[in-house]
Automatic annotation (TrEMBL), chain A:
Belongs to the binding-protein-dependent transport system permease family. The lineage of its organism: Bacteria, Bacillati, Bacillota, Bacilli, Bacillales. The keyword Transmembrane applies. It is a multi-pass membrane protein. This is ABC transporter permease subunit. CDD domains: TM_PBP2 (cd06261). The keyword Cell membrane applies. PROSITE patterns: ABC_TM1. Residues 78-303 form the ABC transmembrane type-1 domain. Pfam families: BPD_transp_1. The chain crosses the membrane at residues 20-45, 82-106, 118-138, 165-187, 215-236, 282-307. Keywords: Cell membrane, Membrane, Transmembrane, Transmembrane helix, Transport. InterPro entries: MetI-like, MetI-like_sf, UgpAE/MalFG_permease. Coiled coil: none annotated.
TrEMBL record, chain B:
The keyword Transmembrane applies. Belongs to the binding-protein-dependent transport system permease family. This is Carbohydrate ABC transporter permease. The keyword Transcription regulation does not apply. SUPFAM superfamilies: MetI-like. The chain crosses the membrane at residues 12-33, 72-98, 110-133, 139-160, 181-206, 260-279. It is a multi-pass membrane protein. InterPro entries: MetI-like (IPR000515), MetI-like_sf (IPR035906). Keywords: Cell membrane, Membrane, Transmembrane, Transmembrane helix, Transport. It is found in: Cell membrane. Its main location: membrane. Residues 73-276 form the ABC transmembrane type-1 domain.
């Protein structure tokens, strides 16, 4: 009986050899580039030496973690991470919702299409280019924004030279790049709302704001909750929200930062990159990565839990 | 009457907001374009708002005469083309297998692909891995690590599952194997979803620079995005001012480091701007489908 089953397994295996062959490259790549680094996290608990590798480096317990908890630079990076992401959650996250609700109020389909075409564009532009554009426009003295300020009789604003302007700039840039693209899911949710609801509301004499409040917003609430939980879950690890542009990620910050604003721009991802890759303190930076992942998990699960309590359902 | 007036004001405000948003979206590109078409010396002394000052193509001539920019452009094109082709082959074949109901160990195989979509080892173990694999300073480092994507595999899988099953069954009865079925039935029918995936992968390849910054100390293999980053910052300015100086041996110099920077930025952006309007529908279809599934 057992032999028979084993024989059957082998027969299926040989019948499906093409299917398995098709899977081989993908599984090989995932194994090497995704799974090996997961096990590589063991280095966070080692005095990792690149030439000795995972198997010959000494284990040091939580020494790497104690080291960064004792470092003032770490706390500055932690503060910047939390501050930038919290502001984004409050300011950037609602933008695509407002965008899609207002877009839905426009009557002309052609106009809607044009607005979508234009506002989706920045999503496809690299952060290197976006950084270059913002530096150019916001240049001190000669940038067009300052030239306009001068002509209005106002003082020059040294945007990229004083740290106090960094958070507003990066948050504006995040909105600029992502507002259109991040609205796609909301717009498709709005499109799937039954048009009869709007007609019935109109017959009942509901005005525009009542229709938005009672039909459109409830129609996209599920999408909003879904994206909100995912965004909260990615706050600490700088992956920038579910669709990659609800909060500035490493690529964004790296192209906007400079030495003068480092005190406000350098988040945990940047700190870990500088310590780990540039400073060759591999284990130390890996430990920061572990800390970020743990915090993300805690945030993800607690946000999901709270929303489940509140609405009865959440992401999982 | 009062409410009707209210409505009109609402429409006007919303319309104005969207016009402002569209203007804010387009203006930075327009500004950079005009700046790159301006005389590099005049634009330093006069204020430019919309139109180029002293229109000239000299900045672009200088940029396209610069060997390191040309070679970076070539590297970017090469890695975009090869990376997209490789991704499509790996993802489309794997999607075929996981779309089959009878696939052996299907549940385990699916979990194998899903887990890395949520958990990752982070930057440092990845960096060490590339080092250990000997991929540092190799062109392959642009292609291999990102070649597979679970998200796009599931996108294609969902698409395959919507294809009618009868053709496949009759082909199977006629003795066609999986390879034949895939190549002559699935591939020709799946062009729209392949286009979606190819565009996302291609744009990501074209825009990528961080992998090069991490793993490529050999500047000959730097892609355009990383070279642009260096040009926009301090590092590359010295070589550029030499270029600028060389470009006008006799007569008046009509470029400057600033206009050359903007010209390089535009050259980096043009490919995206060109393909964008044509393929917009594929982009959007992809994100909506992906979200429904994910």
């Amino acid at each position: 009986m057992k032999q028979q089953r084993a024989g059957g397994f082998l027969r299926t295996l040989s019948q499906q050899k093409v299917l398995l062959l098709f899977l081989l490259p993908a599984m090989g790549l995932v194994l090497v580039f995704n799974y090996i680094p997961m096990f590589g996290l063991v280095m966070a608990f080692q005095d990792y030496k690149i030439l000795e590798g995972y198997f010959h480096s000494d284990f040091v317990g939580l020494a790497n973690f104690k080291e960064f908890f004792a470092s003032p630079d770490f706390y500055q990076a932690l503060r910047n991470t939390i501050a930038i992401n919290l502001i984004c959650l409050v300011v950037v996250f609602p933008m695509p919702i407002i965008f899609s609700v207002l877009l839905n109020e426009l009557v002309s389909a052609k106009l809607k299409k044009t607005i979508q075409t234009i506002t989706y564009l920045p999503y496809f532009i690299s952060w290197v280019v976006v950084g270059g554009l913002f530096y150019k426009l916001l240049e001190s003295k000669s940038g067009v924004v300052n030239v306009l300020l001068h002509s209005l009789g106002m003082e020059d604003i040294p945007f990229f030279r004083e740290a106090q302007y960094f958070w507003p700039i990066i948050i504006f840039a995040t909105i600029w790049k992502g507002i259109g693209w991040n609205s796609i899911l909301y717009l498709s949710a709005i499109n799937s709302i039954d048009p009869h609801l709007y007609e019935a509301a109109e017959v009942d004499g509901a005005n525009r704001f009542q229709r938005i409040w009672n039909i459109t917003l409830p129609g996209i609430a599920g999408t909003a909750v879904f994206l909100f939980v995912l965004t909260v879950g990615s706050l600490m690890n700088g992956s920038g929200g579910a669709s990659g542009s609800l909060a500035p990620n490493f690529e964004a910050l790296w192209n906007f930062r400079n030495a003068l604003v480092a005190g406000k721009s350098d988040v945990l991802d940047i700190y870990a990159y500088q310590q780990g890759v540039q400073g060759a303190q591999y284990a130390y930076a890996a430990a920061i990565g572990v800390f970020q992942s743990l915090m993300s998990l805690v945030l993800l699960f607690s946000c999901n839990f709270l929303i489940k309590k509140w609405r009865g359902e959440a992401l999982f | 009457m009062a409410t009707r007036l209210n409505f009109r004001w609402f429409d006007i405000t919303v319309g104005a907001l969207f016009i402002l948003l569209c203007f804010l979206t387009i203006y930075p590109f327009l500004y950079a374009l005009s700046y790159s078409l301006s005389n590099g010396q005049s634009v330093l002394t006069q204020n430019m708002y919309v139109w180029p000052i002293d229109f000239t193509f000299d900045n672009y001539k200088t940029v396209f005469a610069n060997n390191s920019i040309l070679s970076a452009f070539y590297i970017s094109v090469l890695k975009t083309v090869l990376g997209t082709a490789l991704s499509l082959i790996v993802i489309a074949t794997a999607a075929y297998s996981v779309s089959k109901k009878h696939l052996i160990l299907k549940k385990s195989i699916l979990s194998f692909f899903v887990i890395p979509m949520y958990i990752s080892g982070g930057l440092l173990p990845f960096y060490i891995l590339i080092f250990n694999l000997g991929l540092m300073n190799k062109f392959l480092v642009y292609l291999l690590p990102g070649a597979f994507s679970g998200m796009f595999m599931f996108l294609i899988k969902v698409y395959y599952e919507t294809l009618p099953g009868e053709v496949e069954e009759s082909a199977k009865i006629d003795g066609a194997g999986d390879f034949r079925v895939f190549a002559s039935i699935f591939v020709p029918l799946s062009f729209p979803v392949y286009a979606t995936v190819a565009l996302f992968v291609g744009v990501a390849q074209w825009n990528a620079w961080f992998d090069a910054m991490l793993f490529m100390s050999n500047t000959d293999l730097h892609p355009l995005q990383l070279l642009l980053q260096n040009i926009l910052r301090e590092a590359e300015v010295t070589t550029f001012s030499q270029v600028a100086a060389l470009s006008g041996p006799q007569g008046i110099k009509r470029t400057s480091v600033e206009t050359l920077r903007m010209a390089t930025l535009m050259v980096t952006t043009f490919p995206i701007l060109f393909i964008y309007p044509f393929f917009q529908k594929y982009f959007i279809k992809g994100v909506v489908l992906g979200a429904v599934k994910g």
